[in-house]
Specification:
about 450 residues, alpha/beta, Elongation Factor Tu (Ef-tu), domain 3, about 60% helix
């Protein structure tokens, strides 16, 4: 029974608690419903008030409003008021109502603000571009001015350096000049002292010179007398061809004979101006230098110098007939050579030294070379080989080449100009040749043809 009473008490408490909870919920539901109704009324009033500022269609279809709604820092009205204030400030009519602004724009003939703004922006862009271009030019000018300033500074620095360098050089030159001036003064004093000594010495030398001059003058007079005698003797030899001909003058003698070597020693050497290659004719001392039956001065033998010493020379025998002999003391002679004199030769014409039957100018040059080589002098040059050669009184010998034949005149009907020219040239050579012969006879100059000349110099065919 006791358990049965306890169970009933619990159920009652549960019912009581459930009833309390229901009553509490009911009270809260009434209160909540009352507040919802008040809120709906307020929301309705707010919606009506909001429609007065912005309608639902404007809120949902206007991107500008939606953009303003996204800005949490300001309300839409605040944003619009700020934009309106900025617009009025932009057009300079902040206190003017919209109708006044519209009238003002019409009076300015501005139909739409945005195109005007775009035009102004375009002008602004052009102005900016112009400004940028001017800025670039300004920067370029500034850079050039800077470069010019740098160049000017560099030139100024170089100028200052050059000036300083020149000042240094000038100072050095002044220093060197002072040193040179001191040295010059010192040297001038020394030179003046030396000059005084030289003058004194010159006076002494002049006195000695005057004494020596008198002595030399007396000696010169003696030599003049000797020269006059020698010239008289030489003139006699040249002019008196019939008695004493220069071609007959003996040059030396055979000193000894080298039989085994077919050579001889002669008494002429370096002191007598003998050279290797020179030839001499050998003559019998009992007869002397005379012409043979043919009128030539050919000796009994011919020798050629091969080795020269101070006072003697060795010569080999290059020609000797079977019936002739060479003896110690035999005379030797060469027309060109003379130990004391230099004979002058005039050579003219064409020669055939080796007798091959062909005349040539080359052989004439060989004759000239022999004369020069053996101590003679030539007075005939290329000009003297022309059509009008001239002899002078100081020529010792005239050497003539082959005597030209008298040229035959061309036939009367000859019309070949070359034949006429050849005859004219041959006639001029003929006249020149015999013109020289005439001049030589008038001046008493000995004339030697090729054979006589070669025999007198001991020429032989090598």
């Amino acid at each position: 029974m006791a358990r049965s009473g306890g169970g009933s008490s619990g159920s009652i408490w549960a019912i009581v608690l459930l009833g309390i909870a229901f009553l509490t919920s009911l009270v809260f539901a009434i209160l909540f419903y009352t507040k919802i109704e008040v809120a709906e009324q307020q929301a309705q009033s707010a919606s009506v008030e909001l429609d007065r500022y912005v309608r639902p269609s404007e809120r949902s279809g206007n991107d500008v409003i939606r953009g303003m709604l996204q800005n949490q820092s300001k309300s839409v009205v605040g944003e619009l008021m700020e934009v309106n204030s900025q617009l009025k400030g932009f057009i300079g009519l902040a206190e003017t109502p919209i109708e006044g602004i519209d009238g003002r724009m019409k009076s300015l003939e501005v139909k739409a603000l945005i195109p005007e703004i775009e035009r102004l922006r375009a002008e602004e862009q052009s102005a900016k571009e112009l400004q940028n271009e001017l800025n670039k030019k300004y920067e370029t000018a500034t850079r050039r001015a800077s470069e010019a300033e740098t160049a000017k500074n560099q030139v100024e620095n170089e100028y200052r350096n050059s000036v300083n360098k020149l000042k240094g050089q000038l100072a050095k030159l002044e220093k060197d000049y002072d040193a040179f001036q001191k040295k010059a003064d010192s040297e001038q004093k020394s030179i003046a002292s030396q000059l005084a000594k030289v003058r004194d010495q010159a006076k002494d030398e002049k006195a000695k010179f005057n004494s020596l001059e008198g002595q030399l003058k007396s000696e010169i007079e003696v030599y003049k007398q000797r020269i006059a005698r020698l010239e008289s003797q030489h003139s006699g030899r040249v002019s008196q061809e019939a008695n004493i001909d220069p071609s007959t003058l003996v040059d030396g003698k055979i000193a000894s004979i080298l039989v085994e070597q077919n050579a001889v020693y002669i008494d002429l050497g370096q002191s007598s101006h003998v050279i290797p290659g020179m030839t001499f004719e050998i003559y019998d001392p009992k007869i002397g230098v005379v012409k043979d039956n043919e009128g030539n001065y050919r000796g009994k033998a011919t020798i050629e110098v091969i080795n020269v010493f101070e006072t003697t020379s060795v010569a080999r025998v290059v020609r000797i007939p079977d019936n002739e002999q060479i003896f110690t003391g035999d005379l030797i002679a060469n027309l060109i050579y003379d130990p004391e004199l230099k004979f002058k030769f005039f050579v003219y014409g064409e020669f055939d030294l080796d007798k091959i039957g062909q005349l040539s100018v080359t052989d004439r040059r060989r004759v000239e070379n022999m004369i020069l080589k053996w101590g003679g002098m030539l007075v005939s040059d290329a000009k003297q080989q022309g059509d009008n050669p001239k002899l002078t009184y100081d020529v010792d010998f005239l050497i003539l080449g082959q005597e030209p034949e008298f040229p035959q005149a061309p036939a009367e009907d000859e019309v070949d100009p070359t034949a006429i020219e050849r005859h004219a040239k041959a006639m001029k050579r003929y006249e020149a040749y015999f013109g020289l012969v005439k001049q030589a006879k008038e001046l008493s100059i000995p004339i030697l043809n090729q054979n006589r000349f070669l025999s007198m110099v001991g020429y032989y065919k090598r």
